[in-house]
Amino acid sequence: MSITKLLGIKYPIFQGAMAQIAFAPLVGAVANAGGLGIIGSGGLSADRLREEIRKTKEITDKPFAVNLMLMMNNIPELIQVLIEEGVKIVTTGAGNPAPYMPILKENGIKVIPVVPSVKLAKKMEAIGVDAVVAEGTESGGHVGETTTMALLPQVTSAVSIPVVAAGGIADGRGVAAAFALGAQGVQLGTRFLTTVECPTHINFKMAVVEADDTSTTVTGRSAGAPVRSIKNSMIAEYLRLEQEKATRDQLEELTLGSLRKAVFEGDTDRGSVMAGQIAGMCNEITTVEEMITTMFAEAQEVLNRLGNVILTEEKELVLS
To answer: Strand 132-135 to strand 163-166: parallel, antiparallel, or no bridges (unpaired)?
Structure first.
């Protein structure tokens, strides 16, 4: 079954569950435009998540999902909220959903973990998840080590469930490439940061719009928790402290509250502007609907054109 039929959506596109950002205004807009909006529940209480779900329902009657960061200690309470509010799709990260699979499946909830490796994708298929998101290191926020180009074909060859590609996708060409490598859908985060409905400070959006292909870097490798963000004064200081073998406490003190500082206060110099390497292509602010429809029209054009590509005896790609 295709990912669109499985989830009841028009376009095979997921909106990434960006912390402090993926809330009702964005999620509802994505759902109304035919994609899968995903509420980011990281750091939320059960009551706060319930509030966000209900706000989203006021905006859309289409399917949407909630992302569970499984490292949080209130996951059972959050799952109870999902059941009570009738949410039928869950994506997961930062942990193994196996302990929660029985209750999720008993309540008809589809489970889609985000995975950074073939090994984890196969493990997730074995415990009965419905699909996986294969996320490459190009992504913004918390990242793995393998690029999308290398990870995606290996995952799609290793599992029989639908695979959604994430990392380094911002236009129709990226969508077409993901499908060429075996994906049934795509997940985008960074491109959604530059949409009208994204509930971030305008400074945050403009930091992404003004970024180029070399604007991001990864911090936190020394602590085993790599995060990709746009370079600024805080990031430079963090990298310096890492080189000087600073303690984890020193690093955490520097970054404490930095995401909220960027997202809500618009401090893009001392705040954490998490974004992916594809930020250099996210150079205009559009509505969610315009972004999605344009992207998939372009993807279809690319796929149609590639349908006329043949490999000659001289092993050269040419248009027939």
So the answer is: parallel
Instruction: State both tokens at 138.
Output: 């190009």
Alpha helical stretches, state H, 183-247: 190-193, 202-209, 233-243
Task: Answer yes or no: do 126 and 262 share one domain.
Answer: no
Same domain, 81 and 44: yes
| Stated length of the chain | 320
Question: Is 95 a domain residue?
Answer: yes
| 221 part of a folded domain | yes
CA distances from 123 to 5, 60, 142, 183 (A): 24, 34, 21, 18
pLDDT tens readout for residues 72-115: 989 999 999 999 999 999 999 988 999 999 999 999 999 999 99
- What's the pLDDT at 175? 95
User: Looking up tokens 């429809």, which residue turns up?
Assistant: 293
**126, 188, 291, 50 alpha-carbon torsion, rounded to 10°:** 80
pTM, full prediction:
0.89
Residues 223 and 194 in one domain: no
In a domain? residue 205: no
Tokens of 232: 């600024």
Helix ranges, 86-210 (H)? 101-106, 118-126, 148-158, 172-180, 190-193, 202-209
| Token pair 């329902």 in the structure block, residue | 57
- pLDDT 10s digits, 167-224: 999 999 999 999 999 999 999 999 999 999 999 999 999 999 999 999 999 988 877 7
- Residue 93 and residue 67 in contact, taking contact as beta carbons nearer than 8 Å: yes
Distance CA 155, CA 164 (A): 10
| Same domain for 290 and 150 | yes
Structure confidence at residue 256 as a pLDDT band (50, 70, 90)? confident
Identify which of 131, 134, 138, 70 has the alpha carbon closest to the alpha carbon of residue 99.
Answer: 70
Which tokens is 51 given? 């509030």
Together in a domain, 76 and 193? yes
- Torsion over CA: 76, 118, 35, 264 (sign): positive
Residue 258, both tokens:
């930095």
